[in-house]
Amino acid sequence: MSQKEFQRVKVIENAVAGRLSVGEAARLLQLSERQVQRLKRRYRPDSVAWVYHGNRGRPMPWALPAALRRTILELARGKYLGFNDSHLCQKLHSEENLVVSRETVRRILIYRKIKNPFAVIFLPPGSQITQELRLS
User: CA 14 to CA 9: how far, in whole Å?
Assistant: First the structure.
């Protein structure tokens, strides 16, 4: 249980017991009085399950399946090694019939620490590396 959920339990318990008014509970939880009334109706003294959000533990509906992420990683490390994000995305669409956005491909590769081979590195003007590059 998070700190926010724990605070919500304590404040609603006090509101149900009559030690806090609905207005005071709303101010403490930074909610409207209407939301506090809803929480009071959901309150169950024998458990804290009423505090948790209904979507807790469910996967996001727009998340890519793990198998598809693995396929993209295998192709990026193998058949399409050295491709940048945009080119890889185009090849996945045209050759593999996988339709994913460039940003999704980029996020998957960054998470697995696969670098873009054409990424531009900006160096500060007076750095040691910049001077060495100028001399060579």
Answer: 9
Fill in the amino acid letter for 44. R
CB of 68 closer than 8 Å to CB of 98: yes
pLDDT of residue 13: 93
Write down the pLDDT at residue 123: 66
Helices (H) then strands (E): counts for the chain = 7, 0
In angstroms, rounded to a whole number, what is the distance separating the alpha carbons of residues 14 and 36? 12
| pLDDT tens digits for range 94-127 | 999 999 999 999 999 988 888 776 666 666 676 6
Taking each helix axis as running N to C, give the angle between helix 33-42 and helix 3-17, from 0 to 180 degrees, rounded to the nearest 10: 90
pLDDT at 62: 86
The CA distance from 36 to 8, in Å, is: 10
Cβ neighbours of residue 39 closer than 8 Å, sequence gap 6 or more: 8, 12, 31, 50
| Distances, alpha carbon 132 to alpha carbons 28, 123, 135, in Å | 60, 12, 5
Give the predicted TM-score (pTM) of the model: 0.54
